[in-house]
Design a protein that fits this description.
Number of helices: 7
Number of strands: 5
Strand order of the largest sheet: 2-1-3-4-5
Length: about 170
C-alpha cells in the first residue's frame, strides 16, 4: 500500500471510530509520569495521535507533568503536518503495526527517533487487529514478533542515543 492509499484508508478508519480515546492511552500516563521523574521531560510529541483529544481535552501532558506537547497523525486532518523541532519524549502507541513494511515504515521510524531528544515510548501489537480497513485489509498490516520489533528498534535507539521504553500487546 502506498502513502496515498494508506492515508485514504485511515481517513475512512478515523471517521468510523474514536481513535486516540483517552481511555485507550490513559493506562500509559503512570508509566510516562515515572519516566518523566527519571528523565526530566519538558516536551512530548504523540506520533499517531488519532483525534488528539487525550491531549486537547484529557490534558495528558498535565497529568504526566510535561509542559509542552505536539501532535502528529498522517491521516487525521487536524494533525497531518509534522511539528518542527525535537521533543524530549516521542510517544507512539498502537501505530507501527498499522504502517506497511518498507519505505513508509522506515520513514515513520526515522521520524519517531530523530524527533526525540531523550526518550521514545513505544507500544506495538504483535497480533492481528479486530478491525479491518475499508479495503478489507486487517488494520494491523505489519505483524512481527517481539524479537523482530526489538531487532529493528534497538539499533535506532542506539543510533539516536535515546532511551527506549518498548511494550507489546498480543502474543
Amino acid at each position: 500500500m502506498d502513502r496515498e492509499e494508506l492515508v485514504k484508508q485511515y481517513e475512512i478508519y478515523h471517521k468510523n471510530r474514536n481513535t486516540g480515546d483517552c481511555e485507550i492511552k490513559f493506562r500509559h500516563v503512570d508509566m510516562i509520569y515515572a519516566l518523566n521523574k527519571k528523565l526530566k521531560l519538558n516536551s512530548v510529541l504523540d506520533y499517531g495521535c488519532g483525534h488528539g483529544k487525550q491531549w486537547t481535552e484529557g490534558k495528558f501532558h498535565k497529568k504526566m507533568k510535561i509542559p509542552e506537547y505536539a501532535l502528529y497523525d498522517i491521516a487525521y486532518p487536524d494533525w497531518t503536518e509534522m511539528p518542527e523541532g525535537k521533543y524530549d519524549l516521542v510517544i507512539s502507541t498502537d501505530v507501527l503495526e498499522h504502517i506497511p513494511v518498507g519505505e513508509l515504515l522506515d520513514e515513520a521510524l526515522e521520524n519517531i527517533f530523530s524527533k526525540a531528544n531523550k526518550a521514545v515510548f513505544l507500544k506495538v501489537s504483535t497480533t492481528p487487529a479486530r478491525k479491518v480497513l475499508a479495503n478489507g485489509q486487517n488494520a494491523h498490516c505489519t505483524l512481527k514478533s517481539k524479537e523482530e520489533w526489538r531487532s529493528i528498534l534497538e539499533p535506532l535507539a542506539e543510533k539516536y542515543n535515546v532511551y527506549m521504553w518498548l511494550g507489546f500487546n498480543g502474543e
